[in-house]
Amino acid sequence: MDFLSLAQKYKTPLYVYDLDRIKEQFLNFKNAFFGRKVLICYALKANSNLSVIHTLSCLESGADCVSIGEVRRAILVGVKKYRIIFSGVGKSDEEIKEALETDILFLNVESQQELERIEFIAKELDKKARISVRLNPNIDPKTHPYISTGLDENKFGVDKETALKLYLYAKNSPFLEPVGIHFHIGSQLTDLAPITASVEKVADFARSLLALKIDLKFFDVGGGLGIAYANEKTIELYDYAQTILRALKGLDFTIICEPGRYIVGESGYLVTKVLYEKHTKTKRFVIVDGAMNDLMRPTLYQAVHKVRVCFKNKPQKDSESLCDIVGPICESGDYLAKNVMLPSLASGDLIVFENAGAYGYSMSSNYNTRKRVAEVGIERGEDRVLKHRENFEDMVSDELKILQGAQNGFK
């Protein structure tokens, strides 16, 4: 990929996505379940750019959404409403109402009070709400604690006893229709064992629900498959699919998967420009124009992205030394990489961070009144803007209108 030309054309910092690779990853995932009833619901939280979602919708992807805004994004670019699910522990009444009116596939329920609110709103709308209950299998996913979701100590899902009560309550309600069961134990999973244990545990519970005449149709295994950020050994798609299929032997469910990172993570790059180097008595810093507001993962999760120099103004071979790559934000936590080996660098050289397609731009912010960067897609060798770089006027326009209105009121 010609990062120098892209940087010259679109400036830096810059997110670049390989759309062809995204399509390939999605189709590989779907084909791993070939011959079985499966719905792949891309997790929008990983990367919610409309062009990315549209690319996947053209391949008959569904959408896993955790806000009504994400539901709207999916609908806007053509994802069929019957392929959209709405998850999350904190749905507001307004979000529940709109989801029911939109008639999406189902809502994932995570508490007794949430189920009661859904029932109340469905009754007001004179609708029957299709629901699935998120079961927390209490299995350690062996991932970073911030992205672990399947333990009792996590805020997500309910235990088996509570889930049984919710299903029985829903079965007896004229305004609720339990159609699925759901679990999701965490993100960036690189060990198949906890997934195997979870799917077997939830499948056994599903069998007990069927015995109680609760007519489930969907078995939602969540997402979370990891990618190789720093040479991790990842799970093979074939092994993942076979684990699920074995556990569901004899059950006529449509399998729902919610991959996000696996689909887009390896297809994204963050291109940054070197501003200067700084040396203290003990450290070497490479200061770039990208910052923690552009890529939060290293600061938030201590995540590691492979980093390489993709352009040097003076391409002579220099000896490498350890350095931290840091940004302009006034926080000691503003770093993109620590203790990486790089040659000496000068203003205008380019550094690229790999595997940045997931939880990069979608977690970015305007902290320090920094503009969110441009997003560019590469498809069949051609580049195009997917989202323009923000400008200062974009950031302050609403505040300025309010301020000017208030000032006019004081006259």
Describe this structure in words.
The chain is of the alpha/beta class and 411 residues long. The protein has two domains: 3-13 and 266-388, Lyase, Ornithine Decarboxylase, Chain A, domain 1 (Beta Barrel), CATH 2.40.37.10; 19-264, Alpha-Beta Barrel (TIM Barrel), CATH 3.20.20. Helix content is 32%, strand content 23%. It contains twelve helices and 17 strands. It has helices at 3-10, 19-31, 50-57, 68-76, 93-102, 112-125, 160-171, 192-211, 237-247, 261-264, 297-301, 392-410, and strands at residues 14-18, 38-43, 62-65, 84-86, 106-109, 129-134, 176-182, 218-220, 254-257, 268-279, 284-288, 307-311, 321-326, 335-342, 350-353, 374-379, 382-387. The strands form two sheets. Strands 1, 10, 11, 12, 13, 14, 15, 16 and 17 form a nine-stranded mixed beta sheet that branches. α8 packs parallel to α9 (237-247). The protein is globular, with a radius of gyration of 23 Å. The protein starts with a helix and ends with a helix.
Secondary structure: elements and pairs:
Elements: H1 3-10, E1 14-18, H2 19-31, E2 38-43, H3 50-57, E3 62-65, H4 68-76, E4 84-86, H5 93-102, E5 106-109, H6 112-125, E6 129-134, H7 160-171, E7 176-182, H8 192-211, E8 218-220, H9 237-247, E9 254-257, H10 261-264, E10 268-279, E11 284-288, H11 297-301, E12 307-311, E13 321-326, E14 335-342, E15 350-353, E16 374-379, E17 382-387, H12 392-410
Helix pairs in contact: 5-6, 8-9
The CATH homologous superfamily of the largest domain is termed Alanine racemase
**Amino-to-carboxy terminus distance:** 57 Å
Helix tally equals: 12
- Percent of residues in beta strands? 15-25%
Q: What characteristic shape results from the CA principal axes?
A: globular
Largest sheet: 9 strands, mixed
Can you give the helix content as a percent range?
25-40%
Count of the separate structural domains: 2
CATH fold field value of the largest domain: TIM Barrel
- The overall pLDDT, averaged over residues, is 93
Low-confidence stretches: 143-151
H/E series: HEHEHEHEHEHEHEHEHEHEEHEEEEEEH
Q: In CATH, what is the class of the largest domain?
A: Alpha Beta
| Strand elements, count | 17
Rg value: 23 Å
CATH architecture of the largest domain: Alpha-Beta Barrel
Helix/sheet category: alpha/beta
